[in-house]
């Protein structure tokens, strides 16, 4: 057995295709970004929830997106012959949790979550097989107040991260508007509307000739009806959407626009749908996608509860922050490296370190048998800003020399003053 193992190729250090390892600096950056978002959302009264990535497969099979269910889920049978899916999105879980405690939960509720999601996609810029997705949802408000709030929240999040109005654009449309325009132009059943919607969803990736060919000869294009409504219902739905957009303009939100080509891939949307895009063409994929879904909670029995929300993926978000030069500065590593002149100083250095930690200073104590020169080099390599050697001499005199590694400057200070001198670093 042991001999066989020795002959094997060494195991790969690469992660599974399309997923990421987060080394500490990467994880710290992502965590800092999400913490800024948490703070922004909590100021608006949103509460964080979570759930397991494992769900019953049937949760996704009735009402989400055919493409996701048939081609993109990781589904398997567990040892008890239950079909299990690694969640490809959070919305069905959110609806399940809301439905599960509908009587106890105070409505309306405002929740957010940052789950990792799994989709079997072709990995490419902005698309991976596992991503973290901020989900922000409101349950229990059926009117445009929630539509307005959720879109404003999307813009507030980007602003909290340092983005300017001109860095992004929110494109809004409406499912009932599209359905009415389809009905008015001869798409008279759900299947025909769905086929057209799918085509419209892909329009931006096609030439006009390709789009018209796919539409079919002599087929009317519902987009034209949306542009210049002739039908009463289309006009009514368009007016509703326009008054929402007008309300944004009145609040000075100029980067929220009507775009009838926004369709979204999920079948559960029943009202407005929207996506947020980077205005820099380096990131052409949607950062946020969301909309109103008033029928999903009702699938679990009982009265339906109207919901609206969005998902925003970390992959496209981090590309956005990088493109605009607003990635967060991270300071989570140790602030000070306590060196030991000799190995016998380790315990004295630890008690000095304990004093620093008690004052909130992130402190690392040398645990190697290297000389002080090598310890200083080690501290530099770890990007730790300060180095203090602490041995018998420092312990008995009560003063230390604090070295600033970036400049090489040294200062002699009393042990009591170290914490005060360092806070703010
Ligand atoms: P979605 O459009 O599928 O919506 O995803 C929302 C966002 O998640 C996308 O705009 C993108 O930033 C990110 N995303 C999606 N798939 C991937 C991927 N494979 N790799 C990297 N990022 C990705 C939903 O999932 C809806 N459930 C959102 C929602 C919440 N609607 C209402 N509430």
- CATH C-level label of the largest domain: Alpha Beta
Helix content: 25-40%
Radius of gyration, Cα only, in angstroms? 28 Å
Please name the CATH topology of the largest domain: BirA Bifunctional Protein, domain 2
Walk me through this protein's architecture.
With 425 residues, the chain is an alpha+beta fold. The chain folds into two domains: 24-323, Bira Bifunctional Protein, Domain 2 (BirA Bifunctional Protein, domain 2, 2-Layer Sandwich); 336-423, Rossmann fold (3-Layer(aba) Sandwich). It has helices spanning 2-7, 24-43, 58-61, 66-72, 91-100, 144-160, 175-184, 190-201, 208-215, 222-227, 232-250, 314-323, 346-358, 372-381, 392-397, 415-422, and strands spanning 47-48, 54-56, 74-77, 83-86, 109-113, 116-118, 130-139, 168-174, 256-258, 272-278, 288-292, 307-313, 336-339, 363-365, 386-389, 399-404, 410-414. Strands 1, 5, 6, 7, 8, 9, 10, 11 and 12 form a nine-stranded mixed beta sheet that branches. A five-stranded mixed beta sheet has the order 14-13-15-16-17, with helices on both faces. Strands 2-4-3 form a three-stranded antiparallel beta sheet. Helix 13 (346-358) links the parallel strand 13 and strand 14. Helix 2 crosses helix 6. The two termini are 54 Å apart. The mean pLDDT is 93. The site of histidyl-adenosine monophosphate has 22 residues, from strand 7, strand 11, strand 12 and helix 12. Histidyl-adenosine monophosphate (HAM) binds next to strand 7, strand 11, strand 12 and helix 12.
